[in-house]
Amino acid sequence: MTKTIAFLRAINVGGRRVKMDHLRQVFIEMGFANVETYIASGNVIFDDDVVDRKALVQKIEAGLQDALGYRVDTFVRSIEALTAVSTYQPFPASELEGSVLYIGFLADSPSAENVQKLQEFTTDIDSFHVHESEVYWLCRKTISQSKFTGAKLEKALGMPTTLRNQNTINKLVKKYQ
C-alpha cells in the first residue's frame, strides 16, 4: 500500500463547506483505507494500491461529484513525491526569509508557452518557478499585498491548480514520511 495525499481544489472556500468527517466518510465509501484529513482545506491522506494515478484521480473526482454535487479538481501525490516537492529549492534561501512560498499542484506539466505567460506576472512582490507538475509562487509580502491570485495562476497556466503553503506541505511530509 502507498500513502497518498489528495489535494482538493476549492474545499471550504467560496461557499463550498464540507465537514472533514463527511469528507473522510466519502473516501472510505470509495474504498480507500486509513483515511485521514489534515486541516480543513481539502487535504485527504489515505492508503491505496493504485498504479494508474490518472485513474485514481478520475475515481476520486467522480466519487466527490456524486457525494457533493459539484466538481472537485483533485491532485494526488505519493508521500515520496511530496517529499521531493518539499525539498526542492526553487529560490535561493536568502529570498525565502520573510516571504511565503506557495506550491500549486497541477495535473500535468504546463507548456513552455504557459510558463512564459506566468513569468509575465513576476513583480518585486511575486516570483514564480515551475518544476514538473508543481508551480512555486514566492510572495515576498503578505498575499493581500500581492495583485496576483489563484485565478490568474490558472489562467496563465491554462489548467486548474490548488495552492498550499509550504509550511503545510512540510508538516504533511513530517507526519507521514
Question: What do these coordinates show?
Answer:
This protein has 177 residues and is α+β, with helices and mostly antiparallel strands. It folds into two domains: 2-81, SP0830-like domains (Alpha-Beta Plaits); 83-176, Alpha-Beta Plaits (2-Layer Sandwich), CATH 3.30.70. The protein is 37% helix and 25% strand. A four-stranded antiparallel β-sheet has the order 2-3-1-4. Strands 6-7-5-8 form a four-stranded antiparallel β-sheet. A hairpin with a 2-residue loop joins strand 6 and strand 7 (134-139). Helix 3 crosses helix 7 (166-176) and helix 5 (112-119) runs antiparallel to helix 6. The chain starts with a strand and ends with a helix. The mean pLDDT is 95.
Describe, in short, the structure shown.
The chain has 177 residues and is an alpha+beta fold.
